Amino acid sequence: MVLQVGGARIDIERYRRDGYLTAESALSPDDLQRLRVASDEVLALCASDPERYRRRIEWESDHLDREHGVGMERVIRKLEPVSDIAPLFGEYAFHPGIVDPLRRIFDDDVSLFEDKLNLKLPGGSPYPWHQDWACCWRAHTDELITCFIYLDDADETMGCLQVIPGSHEGKPILPFKEGSHFEIDPAAVDTAKAAPVPLKAGGMIYFDPYLLHYSDFNTSSKPRRTMIFTYNPARLGSINEGRFPDDGRA
Ligand SMILES: O=C(O)CCC(=O)C(=O)O
User: How many domains, in total, are found in the chain?
Assistant: First the structure.
């Protein structure tokens, strides 16, 4: 069944078959500009007091080897969660152009399960092949859909998302690489089937929690910022409210 939801063409069978779907931007150039400004502001806020915001911050230096880490010592790669300290992200999480397709896939309203801002600034580090449910969400339902929204144009030189279409099929839980609780064993990943998903700013990727995905270094001179929202069906309730750290905010 193919649905036209706002500007998005939603092919539900395709989502179920491939485990992901792309959609054109639901956001205007003004929306995107507001979000980029909000991204800069929340980044500056957290960078100004990294001790206070430490539970939200992932540092590039924890993901880069010595060769790639030069000059990246104090660069933030990810902020999670952000919607409570940067409410604009919380507002856009419920933008109809973003969530209406999900309401059709879930056949229900949505509840926001997770929100984050991945910066991938120039020189930013890869995310090795992983499955979100297996690495990060096992304590919760797997009735989850992630929406990945590029705030900047993203191509392969900027480390756009890459996926293995259909790898979610049958809800496999693939073995981790030895010593990791995140990265899948490279022997279990057929990288010949990898499909890069480059999109213009505002472009969206909806994907399944079992889908194998990856992104490479940002070797360009431009940022590849991404707003990432994960939702569960509203009938399950607000099941991940405990994710917001109490970092002494007024
Ligand atoms: O931002 C990226 O490039 C990948 C992020 C990702 O895979 C994740 O947050 O699970």
Answer: 1
Q: Could you report how far apart the first and last alpha carbons of the chain are, in Å?
A: 48
Residue 1, in any domain of the structure? no
Asked if residue 4 belongs to a domain, the reply is no
Residue type, 187: A
Q: pLDDT digits over 105-163, tens only?
A: 999 999 999 999 999 999 999 999 999 999 999 989 999 999 999 999 999 999 999 99
Domain containing 177 — which CATH number? 2.60.120.620
Alpha-carbon gap, residue 45 to 64, rounded angstroms: 23
From CA 52, how far away is CA 110, in angstroms rounded?
31
Contact 86, 37 (CB under 8 A): no
Is residue 245 one of the residues assigned to a domain? no
Q: State the residue range of the domain holding 151.
A: 12-235
Name the residue among 117, 101, 118 with its Cα closest to residue 206.
101
Cα 161 to ligand 1 centre (Å): 7
pTM: 0.96
Evaluate whether 161 touches 108 at the Cβ level (below 8 Å).
Answer: no
Q: Confirm whether 242 is domain-assigned.
A: no
Ligand 1 touching residue 240 (CB < 6 A)? no
Q: Check if the beta carbon of residue 21 is closer than 8 Å to that of residue 10.
A: yes
Name the residue of 136, 197, 213, 218 whose CB sits within 8 Å of the most ligand 1 atoms, as the mutation to test its pocket.
Answer: 213
